[in-house]
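Note to self: user wants both folds in one dump. Writing first protein now.
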Amino acid sequence: MANNFLEQLVAEWYEYQGYFVRRNVPVGKRTRGGYECELDIIAFDPVKRHLAHIEPSMDAESWEKRERSFRKKFDAGLKHIPGLFPGLDLPEEIEQIAIFAFASRVNHPTLAGRKVLLVSDLMREIMEDLGDKKIASAAVPEHHPILRTLQFVVEYRKKVFDTLR
């Protein structure tokens, strides 16, 4: 499992969609030990030939500080990701996405030149996809516990929320 909820959710979502996913990958091994940085999620869909590098974050840092730290991670991703899937024919383009729980895209639609996605947008995308998949006939696999929970929420939302009112 990933080290935090948001990383786990993102990894499950990409795996559920058919991507091969690598999580928390240290890259840029240093001669005196340690690594340049860690890439949170790398996802590759060989059918769509789509390669994505996703950095989910629950931080509440300034955009200036985010710009520095995410640029470093995204630049490291561009440099090291091509070597992480030996034997696979990877596309040249890598989509890089920063996902934030605490942010607004009003003044910051991108970060370090890459896409910014809000957790609320990710949740909407997931819930819309799961909305027409009935648990009885199309249950999310057990090895995706967060997505499976969201599928239950979607299916039983009317009963649950009517009860809470």
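First done. Writing the second protein, which came from a different request thread.
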Amino acid sequence: MKLATVLLDGLQRVGCISSDETRIELLTEEWSDLVDIIAAGINTAEATMSGQSLPLSSVRLLAPIPRPRRNIMCVGKNYLEHAKEFARSGYEAGAVAGKDLDEYPALFSKLPSSVIGPGEKIQLHPTVTQKVDYEAELAVIIGSGGRGISRDEAWDNIWGYTIINDVTARDLQKNHKQWFLGKSLDTFAPMGPWVVTSDEVDAADLDVTCFVNGELRQQANTRDLIFDIPTLISTLSAAITLEPGDIIATGTPVGVGIGLSPPTFLQSGDTVEITISGIGTLTNVCA
């Protein structure tokens, strides 16, 4: 099932997307926040439907979780070829020369305030950075959560999946050593277009592509992840309690702007289109 968060007549609503992705059936107004639905342990098939079905074109799609309640948890260098291009790029602060693979996942976070929805503008912040890059990623939405989740238990703790563009100011990422600032500027986490529940897709085998202005830049499959999804959930939850609605961005494939020759950064007017099989397409334009 695909669930979207939308704006209708100035109100935030949640609804189920039709199989042909042309209509949305709204839930009752009491279920206007996807995190509340997840936290309540409600099967979306059992959630009260309002009976109101509308053309999808008649509402404004928001990010599925427009303002996450905690930082988005992210993983860096989680596809081998991207790890190699990052190591060669000169933008990896403190990197060991020639070291492509890390022994442990590189973990960082993005502020909730960086989230925007489908169709919203990615601000390039030209007074702060001149090197803004794109990163297509599968995002995991935690369901029941908990602490000390084992690899074997991990899949059962996932509520659904969505797409995130882990937009990055490469110069800030390098200059400040820690990645938090370069990853957390306003509008640097486009998300959507909706969440697909975990029973609908096999997250260990999803195609990920990214086009910039119609040019294919990134293409990979989640089976190529260095640290797979159960490993990420087990690592993060070892001594941190994961909560319903927490978001984990799983890493980006090879083909980001810093890996091109010469490096190519986003410009005003550029369109970034990310597609993940079984989920959908997230499109944003730079401003």
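Dump finished. Worth passing along: The mean pLDDT is 94.
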